[in-house]
Amino acid sequence: MTIQQERPAVSDKPPARKKAVLSEGKRQERKLGLLLCAPAALVMVAVTAYPILYSFWLSLQRYDLKFPDQREFVWFENYATVLTNSYWWTAFGVTMLITVVSVVVELVLGMGLAMIMHRTIVGRGLVRTSALIPYGIVTVVAAFSWRYAWTPGTGYLANIFGDGAPLTERASALAIVILAEIWKTTPFMALLLMAGLALVPEDLLKAASMDGASGWQRFTKVMLPVMKPAILVALLFRTLDALRVFDNIYVLTAGANETSSVSMIAYNNLIKGLNLGIGSTMSVLIFLTVAIIAFIFVKAFGTAAPGSSDDGRR
Amino acid sequence: MNTKLRWGLLDAVVVVFALVPVLWVMSLSFKTAATLTDGNFIPRDWTLDNYKLIFQTDQFVRALINSIGIALISTVIAVVLGTMAAYAISRLDFPGKSLLVGVSLLIAMFPQVSLVSPLFNIERQTGLFDTWPGLILPYITFALPLAIYTLSAFFKQIPWDLEKAAKMDGATQGEAFRKVIAPLAAPGVFTTAILVFIFCWNDFLFAISLTSTEQSRTVPVALSFFTGASQFEDPTGAISAAAVVITIPIILFVLFFQKRIVAGLTSGAVKG
């Protein structure tokens, strides 16, 4: 990469000439910037924007790969079918439940874990290393671990709440899915929060403590305000990530007993049912749901949203 | 002393919480068929049979090759493209910069399942379905935002003036890059590569939707197909052994590069 040459020449030339040199360099810089970004931008747009538009096009058609002859343009019929279907709304409810409960619990646990990772005076490396394992491990592997742990006979957890098969009952199965989600992603939440924690000035905490603030007061009055941007970023990313829940449900319950998430039924309609029309409709609906939630987050938090502060930072 | 003990206890809780599920799968993978369902956390009879079994089957070996190949190729491409874009974002001024940052942010939040239906059909028609490139393409796409964010955060911390200083001291452009900038940038690029690799290694949704045979199935998908496969009497042991095998690289990364991974994950977060 011999790109540095094209950077604008700065410094001690007379003002009149400097301006001309700058604009020449500026043009070069712009060109180089666009050139360097083009491949990444092209791939990202080609693999997301085009398919989502294509998905919308497919969602307006009756298109079942088992009966390709009946392919027909039906406008919004598929949307009516999906939105009046109780399976869709059950899955929607399940997804929301899993998202809300796991994100709230993760925020609390993640805050605790972030504190421990940030402030512990013994074995900091050990704690951080262990916490990274759930983050790094393949979700399917963790899900199998939980599944076998809760399987009667095989597992060490199956009988702690008395007899029965927890994974075959709706409430307990959903609780296990949530547990698996929390185990897997709390460390990620904690790392994002720890980044915010690192921004809290020690002096400020000391000063607060000198002024007689209790531990709780220091937390709510000093740390939380400083950490707010980090908390919002963590919440946003985890919420949108939790809405995608698929792997854990696939392995733990396969969607039995009404434990399917929206991702799960979209997958089932497409790959098992080979119904492209309905599958695409669900794709579009999930996309819209996520877009609306992201929009609310960004609107509600304004400048605290990631990316928005990027401009003036160069 | 007292505070040390308290922190030690808290640490212990975290370590146990994080490790129990992993140790449990390991324990299952070493159990003999007879003791597999005894529910004991520590195996009573130890055996390596489960490992021998999976390495004798094409199903697993082939999936392992697919997983490694697909994840490595995706990582290399995503990191190269990401480095170029991140360099431009952190060092150059050009129109559309904030647009690019915005687009990557959108893609980081994009529900992947929304792409499954259209990509399934597109790949079916273009012959990409059930091939390596068919998976590499979506992996690169979703790894790019991660790569761009992490790398721009790293690049912003590099003291670029050193390069100028080196040139003043008589280094050529190439030397300045090779001896000053590259060593400073390498840790960031390496860390990003680890994060991207973990992401690709972990994927299940694309892998199960866009493949249909052993030709391109990755291990997480192959694992889910072990279940009830007739060639294993009881797939639990085999699944556990395979699960342990694909967990090894993650554990190695975490053990050796803990500091870097933490730095990588936290760097992009606060500053955006």
Give an overview of the whole structure.
The complex is a heterodimer of chains A (314) and B (272). Chain A is 70% helix and 1% strand. Chain A has 314 residues and is mainly α. Chain A has a single domain (77-305), classed as Orthogonal Bundle (MetI-like fold). A two-stranded antiparallel ribbon of chain A has the order 1-2. The longest helix of chain A is centred in the N-terminal third of the chain and has 45 residues, at 15-59. Residues 1-19 and 304-314 of chain A have low confidence and may be disordered. By secondary structure, chain B is mainly α. Chain B has 2 domains: 1-47, no CATH class; 57-271, MetI-like (MetI-like fold, Orthogonal Bundle), CATH 1.10.3720.10. Chain B has helices at 2-29, 49-56, 58-91, 97-109, 113-126, 132-157, 161-168, 173-202, 205-209, 219-226, 235-271. The model of chain B has no long low-confidence stretch (mean pLDDT 86). The interface between A and B is large, with 112 and 106 residues.
Could you spell the SSE succession of chain B in H and E letters?
Answer: HHHHHHHHHHH
CATH superfamily membership of chain A: MetI-like
Given the C-alpha coordinates, what overall shape of chain A results?
Answer: globular
CATH topology of the largest domain in chain B: MetI-like fold
* SSE class of chain A: mainly alpha
Percent in strands of chain B = under 5%
The chain-level mean pLDDT of chain B equals: 86
Order of helices and strands of chain A: HEEHHHHHHHHHH
Helix content of chain A: 55-70%
Number of domains of chain B: 2
The largest inter-chain interface, given as chain pair and residues per side, is: A-B, 112 and 106 residues
Helical percent range of chain B? over 70%
Oligomer: heterodimer
CATH class of chain A: Mainly Alpha
Query: Which homologous superfamily in CATH is the superfamily of the largest domain in chain B?
Result: MetI-like
Radius of gyration of chain A: 26 Å
> What is the count of DSSP helices of chain B, taking H or I runs of 4+ residues?
11
The CATH architecture name of chain A reads Orthogonal Bundle
Which geometry of chain B do the CA atoms define? globular
Arrangement of strands in the largest sheet of chain A: 1-2
CATH fold-level assignment of chain A: MetI-like fold
